[in-house]
User: Fold these one by one.
Assistant:
Number 1:
Amino acid sequence: MTDKLIWNPKAECMLLKERERLQLDRLQHIVKYAYENIAYYKKSFDAAGVKPSDIKSLKDIVKLPFTSKEDLRSAYPFGMFAVPHEEILEIHTSSGTTGRPVVVGYTAGDLELWGEVMARALSMAGTTKADWVQNAYGYGLFTGGLGVHYGARKIGANIVPISAGNTKRQLEIIKDFGTTILTCTPSYTLYLAEVAGEEGIDLKKCKLRAGVFGAEMWTEKMREEIEKRLHLSALNIYGLTEIIGPGVSQECMEKAGLHLQEDHFFPEVISPDSLVPVEEAHKGELVLTTLTREGTPMIRFRTKDITALNHGICKCGRTTVKMDRITGRSDDMMKIRGVIVFPSQIEKALLEIPGIEPHYKIIITRPHQLDELEVQVETSKKMFSDEIRHIEEMKNNIESHVERAIGIRIKVALVEPKSIQRSEGKARRVFDMRNMK
Ligand code: DLL
């Protein structure tokens, strides 16, 4: 057994000055590379009047224009690729269900890099060759499954590539194989625990030791619950398709912030209003630049995720900057059961149905450890006084229409005309009751 708790001490424990030098070299290279190989960047840099040679220090990064999800969507499918297709080995896409997905391409070098940052992440949870890693993130275009897979493979751990779902089988495997490391979304862990209770499986007697949980927002309270119910150490992992997938940052056993792999991903935190960088330890929107990606390099990608960055040496010995757990988003994107949904998609679908008033409320709850989405909609006066049978029919129609539009199941409640509160300023339409703060 190699008890390698810090996977890459050279990179993870580097002196600050040394890391900054490396980051600057890499930043200068990637900016030039993106400018010369991707038409989008050439156009956007030219429009902003900035040249790659203007990047003389790390601070100069603010001279470069931001890249947004919309920019990436309009480059669909391969407009953000910096290399010919023969050099792309794998693609992944963002998890939106409608509109154009963001397509990212991985070269051999990118897959190697992904395995490296994921090996670092899994090592923070104490994973070694001797571990059974049960990977319950979905395999496929979603990055969770394969990201964990590449990291676990690099470490040489025993991978159980079970993918998402199949809860009873998951539990049998935890019990029979002696799974030690579990990887899945935090909400799924609680569902696993619930089914374990129903099936009479005592998780305390199982060998689970640590879990690497992410892909959605969760809280300290949720960590306590998970640790209590699954009898393991629950650690937070963060990442996004546009940058690489999981592995951008991860908590070590100190559980005091997520170590960001700064030699590969350069972070900034900006005010979403002024777009100016905020001070150290202040909350704002995370902006990421890939320093080493070859297939789809990203320059100043606005993640919309709200966090703060903290420098300083961690008790674990790593010197990489730590980000706070994500507490919200600067746009209105919702992630429901792992699927990205925008309120505007729901609104659009609702308003396509005749007889529906443009007054609605979106309520997200998590009653049985799984997200549920309810849409309360006002109907017209005439319809509301209609027979029950018609109302039921209408409700079903709306449900299936919206489900087709967003790709996940919803519940609709038809409410009386004028019963939804009107607003004098910005309407508050989304009520996220999952208690994420
Ligand atoms: O969720 C990648 C991933 C897979 C991360 C497995 C961790 C584990 P996307 O589907 O592109 O990629 O969604 C990215 O999910 O911008 C955040 O809003 C949210 N997110 C991801 N990790 C966390 C986390 C994957 N630990 C979007 N806490 C991001 C809060 C998270 N939000």
Note: The first strand starts at residue 90 and ends at 93.
Number 2:
Amino acid sequence: MSARVPVITVDGPSGVGKGTLCQWLANRLGFHLLDSGALYRLTALAALRRNLALEDESQVAAVAAGLEVEFLAVTEGAPRIVLEGETVGDELRSETCGNAASRIAALPAVRAALLQRQRDFRQPPGLIADGRDMGTVVFPDANLKLFLTASAEERTHRRHKQLNEQGMNANLKNLADEIAKRDARDSQRAAAPLRPAADAETLDTTRLSIAEVCNWALMRTRRRLGLPKNS
Ligand code: C5P
């Protein structure tokens, strides 16, 4: 049944604006949203809380397989995330957690442990899937595959603004270094590296506003799924 449920994948590097676009698109179409990065971040957080070494592939994979997490819809904005009975907020969005996520995301057993959990998000009426390997590995049969890029400088500025808006301090230079390190690790790893699927449509968003990116994605989605113009 799930194979017939439409899915739109949005992949790209850190800070490119996938989260903002995906939330907007899911909201606009009334589709479900998969924030796959959150699953890697939650696994990293749960592993750190258990004092595991992030390189310990079998232990971290066991944490991923048994992850007790709920994504609770809220009226506006990102869902409330409950990990093992406790709401997690800023801690999950920090660059420290993003980096830890990127380290454990390079481990094939961890990726394998999260695969089915991600596919289970494909529920009617449809899914918007945000990540690095949504179009290449998790949903290779997606109806539409989008891939966003932006210059490293622009992505650092976007992430800096986002962290500031969430009340988290971030030093621009450190952030630039961390994003560069994370991008390099995500694109050079052997397991599901960050890259556009062969049939993905790529958009360089460096000089585009959020509204322009959202409009680009909505037009393509409507066309591909045969949705009415006012959807
Ligand atoms: O997107 P976000 O910054 O929350 O992702 C955190 C990290 O999780 C990424 O840097 C990446 O290493 C990993 N990730 C992944 N595959 C995905 C989503 C995220 O490897 N589909």
Note: The mean pLDDT is 94.
